[in-house]
Design brief:
The radius of gyration is 18 Å and the shape is elongated. Helix content is 76%, strand content 0%. With 104 residues, the protein is an all-alpha fold. It has one domain (2-86). Helix 1 (2-23) runs antiparallel to helix 2 (27-53) and helix 2 runs antiparallel to helix 3 (57-86).
Length: 104
């Protein structure tokens, strides 16, 4: 039962991460939501699978996959954000809240 709760929680995180990718306006906010929500969702799903399987060789393989995911997700997100910054992609600004004639 606990395993299915973890798996369901992971699916909820991944759903909201996907929704954030669709809804957010620029690459930086999309990267933030995708990296956080997808990592949390994948961790929850993999922990749920580990709990469901019990302690055996398959759960140790899942643990290795989990550690690999936790190491590579921030690195890849940083690389994508850095390449966007190098290309000159500016963060989105809300034009409604800025005063006319004033720029930063």
């Amino acid at each position: 039962m606990i395993a299915y709760i973890f798996i369901f929680l992971g699916l909820i995180f991944i759903f909201f991460g996907t929704l954030g990718i669709i809804r957010f306006p620029d690459i930086y906010t999309r990267l933030q939501t995708s990296s956080k929500c997808d990592a949390a969702g994948a961790v929850a799903i993999l922990v749920g699978l580990m709990v469901r399987e019990g302690l055996n060789s398959l759960s140790l393989r899942i643990l290795v996959i989990l550690l690999f995911l936790l190491l590579t997700n921030p690195v890849s997100t940083h690389a994508i954000a850095r390449s966007a910054a190098i290309r000159g992609i500016k963060p989105w600004r809300n034009k409604k809240n800025t005063k006319k004639g004033k720029t930063d």
